Amino acid sequence: MEQLRDALAKFGWTNYEAACYAALVRFGAMKASRVASETDIRKSKVYEPLNRLEEDGFVKITDDNPKVYSAQNPRYVMELEREQFEQESKQVLEKLQEAWEIQEELGSDDDHAWIVKGRDGASMELSQLFDDAEGSIVAFDNRFAHVSRDVIDTLEERADEIDIRLVSGSQARDRLELLQRAGVDARELTELTRSSYYIVDGDQVLMRLSSGDVAVVIEDSDIATIISRDFEETFKEASEVSTDD
User: Fold this and answer.
1) In terms of Cα–Cα distance, which of 166, 124, 162, 125 is closest to 145?
2) Each residue of 204-221: pLDDT tens digit?
3) 186 three-state secondary structure
4) Pairing state of beta strands 163-168 and 136-140?
5) pLDDT tens digits, one per residue of 63-78
């Protein structure tokens, strides 16, 4: 089951989602209370990943009073996630190909891109980009629920100084609401099939690849413009995040 959880994590599943699904595959249909027990997740916290899995069609309900959860066939789940991953990879390749063609036409020999490995490395790079931002930060992050607290704190601090727009999924709703209250224009998107990226001041891009362990940083306004077009379409699709305040 560890292999299944690791594979699902690479597709962007949260630890709780992967743990719940793996437990249902291993033990069969269960109530939420038993899922919580088998996964060591607090009962108050187990409903959110289970509901998310139900919404995505990866878990079905076999009884409703109380709910009994059952895993969909892993073959179906993995095949669907693989197709979505391939679609996302295709979108990334198309954008990078277009960016490469622009660079070829410009004939620039300067090195304006570098790779950062490891989640800590990517988080430090993000914090540095945020600190250096002078006018704007726009971002689509399908793993925003996993970013470090330093990244959240920096966004909160800069919200009063610059324009920040952010799109992520419902699994990051608590963080989106927190940033919305701080002045960030945060939005929520159901389908997270695009690659994660941050665009700073319209000329710097940090794009997360794979499971988020590798990031590419690019300093080029033409490439940033290409990816910004995708963000504007994504931002329009996303729903506004409401707060209780």
Assistant:
1) 166
2) 999 887 555 678 888 888
3) strand
4) parallel
5) 888 899 999 999 888 8
DSSP β-bridge partners for residue 113: 218
pTM beyond 0.85, yes or no: no
b/e code 148-163 from CB counts within 10 Å (16+ = b): eeebeebbbebbeeee
- The answer to whether 144 and 175 have CB atoms below 8 angstroms apart is yes
For the chain, which domains are there? Answer: 2-72 (1.10.10.10), 88-240 (3.30.870.10)
Q: Which alpha helices (DSSP H) does the chain contain, by range? A: 2-10, 15-27, 32-39, 43-56, 74-106, 119-132, 149-158, 173-182, 221-237
Q: What's the rounded Cα separation, in Å, for the pair 213 and 221? A: 25
Could you tell me the two tokens for 96? 């990078």
Spatial contact of 57 and 69, defined as CB atoms under 8 Å apart = no
Of 198, 134, 192, 190, give the one whose Cα is nearest residue 166.
198
What span, in angstroms and rounded, lies between the C-alpha atoms of 185 and 241? 8
> How many C-alpha atoms does 205 have within 13 Å on its Cβ side?
26
Closest CA to 48 of 19, 26, 28, 75: 19
C-alpha dihedral (220, 129, 171, 96), degrees to nearest 10: 20
Q: Are 109 and 115 in contact (CB under 8 A)?
A: no
Cα–Cα distance for residue pair 22/35, rounded to 1 Å: 10
Structure tokens at 169: 């999924």
Nearest of 151, 150, 161 to residue 183 by alpha carbon? 161
